[in-house]
Write a structure and sequence with these properties.
Shape: globular
Number of helices: 3
Structural class: alpha/beta
Bound molecules: nicotinamide-adenine-dinucleotide
CATH superfamily: NAD(P)-binding Rossmann-like Domain
Distance between the termini: 26 Å
Strand content: 15-25%
Number of strands: 3
Helix content: 40-55%
CATH class: Alpha Beta
CATH topology: Rossmann fold
Radius of gyration: 12 Å
Order of helices and strands: EHEHEH
Largest sheet: 3 strands, parallel
C-alpha cells in the first residue's frame, strides 16, 4: 500500500533524537525521502541507519540551525534532492548517506 508521503521530500531538523527521530521513522514508513539534519553527528547517523532499515531514501547533513549558512546549505540540498530521483545519486558519501 502506498504511503501518504510517497514522492515527497522532507527536511527534518533535530533528527538525531527525540521528536525528530520519531518523526523521521514515521515519515520513512509513509514513503518520504528524507534529509535528516542535526548538529550532533552521532545521533544523526543513528537515525539515518534506522530510516534506511525502514527502506527510506535518506541522507544526513550535519546542520546547526542557529547558523544561517548551515540552514541555507541544508535547504539547498533538500531542494536538489526534490529535483532528482534518489538521494544516493547526488549526494557524496561525506554528507552521511553511508548509515
Ligand atoms: N510543546 C510541547 O509540548 C513539547 C513537548 C516535547 C518537546 N518539546 C520541545 O521540542 C523540542 C524537541 O524535543 P525533543 O524531546 O525531541 O528533544 P531532544 O533533545 O531529544 O532533540 C533535540 C535534537 O535537536 C538537536 N539540536 C539541538 N540543537 C541543535 C542545533 N542548533 N542545530 C541542529 N540540531 C540541534 C539535538 O542534537 C537533538 O538531536 C525541544 O525544544 C522540546 O523542549 C515541546
Amino acid at each position: 500500500m502506498p504511503g501518504i508521503l510517497d514522492g515527497k521530500v522532507a527536511l527534518i531538523t533535530g533528527a538525531g533524537s527525540g521528536i525528530g527521530r520519531a518523526t523521521s521513522a514515521i515519515f520513512a514508513r509513509e514513503g518520504a525521502r528524507l534529509v535528516l539534519a542535526d548538529v550532533v553527528e552521532k545521533g544523526g547517523h543513528e537515525t539515518l541507519r534506522m530510516v534506511k532499515e525502514l527502506g527510506a531514501d535518506a541522507i544526513f547533513v550535519r546542520t546547526d540551525v542557529s547558523k544561517s549558512k548551515d540552514v541555507e546549505a541544508v535547504v539547498a540540498k533538500a531542494w536538489r534532492l526534490s529535483n532528482t530521483s534518489t538521494a544516493h545519486s547526488t549526494m557524496p558519501e561525506s554528507e552521511g548517506r553511508g548509515g
